[in-house]
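Narrative of accomplishments. A recurring question from our advisory board has been how the design workflow behaves on a single, concrete structure rather than in aggregate. To address it, we present the structure tokens for one chain from the evaluation set, followed by the sequence designed for it. No filtering or post-editing was applied between the two.
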């Protein structure tokens, strides 16, 4: 049984057959895909309504690693960096569980995520406003646009608009 991931590099969904390589997590071999909501392998039960993992697809994984390596060249050496990651913290430094790609609200537990996403995402005013539009999450769109604005050497790249045949697909319902 396959399941979906969302490629955070190229902005598309991709199908996975149960295991995926996660080099950013230190994996050198594919590992079993786990449901972020239920904490069980994706192959156990129906997870079609659960949140999907943001994970570069095999085709774009190399591009992701090159971008991260380029960013690392501009960062201080590891021994000068704080040992605790700030990747999942809010503006005040408090640890977060994640955030909404539509309204950018921080979540501090899975219960908050579930409450926000319940009943066709009634807790997300931005999603409610845009759900009938043919668009993706504004925060994700901005992140993708920002990642495409400059290449590895820092020079500006031209950005290309999608043709009308390539409209972004909304992943949340």
């Amino acid at each position: 049984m396959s399941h979906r991931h969302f490629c955070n590099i190229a902005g598309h969904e991709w199908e996975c057959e149960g295991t995926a390589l996660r080099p950013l997590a230190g994996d050198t071999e594919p590992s079993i895909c786990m449901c972020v909501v239920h904490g069980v392998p994706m192959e156990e039960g129906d997870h079609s309504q659960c949140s999907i993992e943001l994970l570069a697809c095999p085709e774009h994984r190399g591009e992701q690693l090159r971008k991260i390596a380029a960013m690392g060249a501009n960062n201080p050496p590891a021994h000068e960096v704080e040992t605790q990651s700030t990747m999942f913290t809010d503006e005040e430094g408090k640890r977060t569980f994640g955030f909404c790609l539509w309204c950018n609200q921080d979540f501090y537990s899975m219960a908050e995520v579930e409450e926000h996403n319940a009943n066709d995402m009634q807790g997300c005013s931005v999603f409610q406003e845009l759900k009938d539009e043919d668009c993706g999450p504004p925060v994700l769109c901005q992140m993708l646009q920002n990642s495409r604005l400059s290449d590895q050497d820092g020079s500006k790249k031209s950005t290309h608009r999608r043709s009308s045949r390539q409209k972004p697909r909304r992943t949340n319902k």
